[in-house]
Amino acid sequence: MPTGVALREVRRQLFDAAERILLRDGANALTSRAVTTEAGCAKGVLHRHFADFDAFLAELVIDRIDRMDPQAAALRDAAGTGTVAGNLTEALTALFESVAIAIVGLITARDGLRARLRETIPAGVPVLTEGATMIAGYLTAERDLGRIAPDRDPDILAFTLIGTAHLLYAGTDGDRPEDGAVEEIVTTIVGDAVR
User: Which pTM was predicted?
Assistant: First the structure.
């Protein structure tokens, strides 16, 4: 590893390596040695920039949560266009076909990581909670435009959508759900709320 490489570049390289391992091999394969090997750098590089492996993982999760911001903005901007079910299906598919499902498994499997994340994210399951917030923001915008019934609670709909989609994706052992499965759950959950 060349000296003088900016911290941001090292962090990105390590985070991207961890994501590749998560997607390819799962949470159990994620170790500091696996990450540095995948990143092509010495093991000490990770420990030079992070207090320990759980600190690295916590920052990885927060970095991946921050990457959801553009997706949330795009979804809010889609309010009033296309169909509500289509927009939600696309957003849920994009969320759960990313590294999100692997990160949730990682958080579930590591007590130290959960404890670290509680320092910054005191409630909910990281990634899923932010996904629900993204969906609720969109549904609120659609309700304000009159495309969702005024008596429907966007938060309840969002948590129901996120929870159901999570179960759908978590039960596939890394494979995509069957074609139309996400759209079917979206239509079932929000169908009678759409005007």
Answer: 0.86
Which residue range forms the structural domain that includes residue 93? 62-190
**CATH of residue 26:** 1.10.10.60
**pLDDT tens track for 31-79:** 999 999 999 998 889 989 999 999 999 999 999 999 899 999 999 999 9
pLDDT tens across 76-103, in order? 999 999 999 999 999 999 998 878 888 9
Q: Based on the domain organization, do 16 and 37 belong to the same domain?
A: yes
Pull the structure tokens for residue 132.
């629900």
Q: Is 45 within 8 Å of 17 (Cβ atoms)? A: no
Question: Which residues make beta-bridge pairs with 148?
Answer: 194
